[in-house]
Design a protein that fits this description.
CATH architecture of the largest domain: Alpha-Beta Complex
Helix content: 25-40%
Distance between the termini: 82 Å
Oligomer: single chain
CATH topology of the largest domain: 2-enoyl-CoA Hydratase, Chain A, domain 1
CATH class of the largest domain: Alpha Beta
Shape: globular
Number of helices: 9
Length: 298
């Protein structure tokens, strides 16, 4: 019999080093040049790659804060949210998809509406949230866009819509397709009243959004490298059985072929819009007390 017995102890977890370096979320990879970038540098450059100029997608709230004077605006129609009019179900129910999108993005729908000023000019600006079911246009998105048009008409404020969408939301069937005609009719009234509407297209802008309000602006502009079209390039190639030209459906290609008025870098977009509104709106509409922002990064 042994005189001493060794007590059996379980394995103890290693002591966590308090001085360990945590790099998660500090870096990101550019989809354009494939370089690994310091996230803070990209954020300070308005989410544009400082090496190749690739434009990362940004949220709808970031977009509104970027465009309005001092990033200050009043959100309107924030309470509107989609229901499930068709009781739609594919691999999961539409209600579950809506709940998951709302939780992931922190917004109730795929578009936000803000009211404020840009360069002192009164403006209604809408921004689409791609993270919400691909920025798809359902009946509530159509309603919010129509209300924004009517509000701009009532207040004679400029309307700016920043599109980022995969098109109509087919979980709502024909109800989503009806929004194209509904919005287009409202925009016709805005045009007759002489109130400016500027459409800004970002990556991607496709489907029913492109086929309706995204291409109906008095001024149609886009960010560099944005995919803009109705059907995707792969679908078109499969349909016509031909190889598409290099850069087909990208914003630079559309500008070259007369489909756009300008391609504007995100870092210069706000200044470009202010110059456009100075041309399109009477000076008396501009508010006298305008606080200018610091110069944007080049």
């Amino acid at each position: 019999m042994p005189l001493f017995r060794r007590k059996r102890r379980g394995l103890e977890p290693p002591v966590e080093r308090t001085g360990a370096v945590k790099t998660e979320g500090v870096f990101l990879k550019c989809e354009g040049c494939r370089e690994v970038l310091y996230r803070r540098d990209v954020e300070e450059n308005l989410m544009v790659c400082p090496r190749c100029g690739y434009h990362f997608r940004i949220s709808a709230r970031q977009r509104l804060a970027l465009l309005f004077d001092e990033g200050v605006y009043t959100e309107v129609d924030a309470h509107l949210a989609s229901t499930d009019p068709l009781g739609f179900y594919d691999t999961r129910s539409y209600k579950d998809r809506l709940a998951a999108a709302q939780k992931a993005t922190g917004v109730l729908e795929a578009i936000l509406t803000g009211e404020g000023t840009i360069g002192g000019y009164p403006a209604i600006i809408q921004a689409m949230e791609y993270g919400f079911i691909g920025g798809s246009m359902g009946s509530v998105v159509g309603e919010k866009v129509t209300r924004a048009i009517e509000r701009a008409l009532e207040k004679r404020a400029a309307l700016i819509i920043v599109s980022c969408s995969g098109g109509a939301r087919m979980m709502e069937g024909v109800l989503s397709l009806m929004q194209m005609a509904k919005i287009s009719a409202a925009l016709a009234r805005l045009d007759e009243a002489g109130v400016p509407y500027i459409s800004v297209m970002t990556d991607p802008t496709t489907g029913g959004v492109t086929a309706s309000f995204a291409m109906l602006g008095d001024l149609n502009i886009a960010e560099p490298g944005a995919l803009i079209g109705f059907a995707g390039p792969r679908v078109i190639e499969q349909t016509i059985r031909q190889k598409l030209p290099e850069g087909f459906q990208r914003s630079e290609f559309l500008l070259e072929h007369g489909m756009l008025d300008a391609v504007v870098d995100r870092r210069h977009l706000r200044d470009f819009l202010i110059r456009a509104l100075a041309f399109m709106m009477p000076d008396e509409r501009r508010r006298a007390s305008v606080v200018t922002r610091p110069e944007e990064p080049q």
